[in-house]
UniProtKB/TrEMBL annotation:
Primary subcellular site in the record, as a coarse category: membrane
Species in which this protein is naturally found: Ceratopteris richardii
Recorded GO CC terms: membrane; plant-type vacuole
GO function term, MF aspect, one: zinc ion binding
Protein name: RING-type E3 ubiquitin transferase
Keywords: Membrane, Metal-binding, Transferase, Transmembrane, Transmembrane helix, Ubl conjugation pathway, Zinc, Zinc-finger
Keyword Hydrolase recorded: no
Catalytic reaction list: S-ubiquitinyl-[E2 ubiquitin-conjugating enzyme]-L-cysteine + [acceptor protein]-L-lysine = [E2 ubiquitin-conjugating enzyme]-L-cysteine + N(6)-ubiquitinyl-[acceptor protein]-L-lysine
One annotated GO biological process: protein ubiquitination
EC number in record: 2.3.2.27
Enzyme class: transferase
SMART domains: RING
Membrane topology: Multi-pass membrane protein
Subcellular location: Membrane
Amino acid sequence: MVFSSNPIMVIVKSDVFPLNKIIIQEGASEEELNMLPKYIFRQTGSSTRSGMDMAGPSGGVMSLISTRLSGAAAEQTLSAEDAECCICLSTYENNVELRELPCGHHFHSACVDRWLRMNPTCPLCKFNVSKDENISRVEHV
């Protein structure tokens, strides 16, 4: 395959692809991030031998530490298979801070905050955490 060094000009017909209808999606604002509940994760059922944790993931409990939304559960139990961040693929360690999205998915707070600042949707189900998007979604249902 041979590539030309000549630039290619693309002409877009405005009535087919109107430029004023292009939507640029921005990430979630700090206010929107701060509305999402934060939890501390505590491992449960982890066997110890001589003070060392056995290999393998264990489940745990997410305990609410802050939220501005009503209805967030004070505690949630996680199975071993659910006790991992699907962004960085690491298992949750004791006393790590988690954040839960309105869709119910949870992640390391640092991982999901970084993700949501770029793209305001859940990495797993694509639920939009932007307030404006959720309001318009409810109005059209």
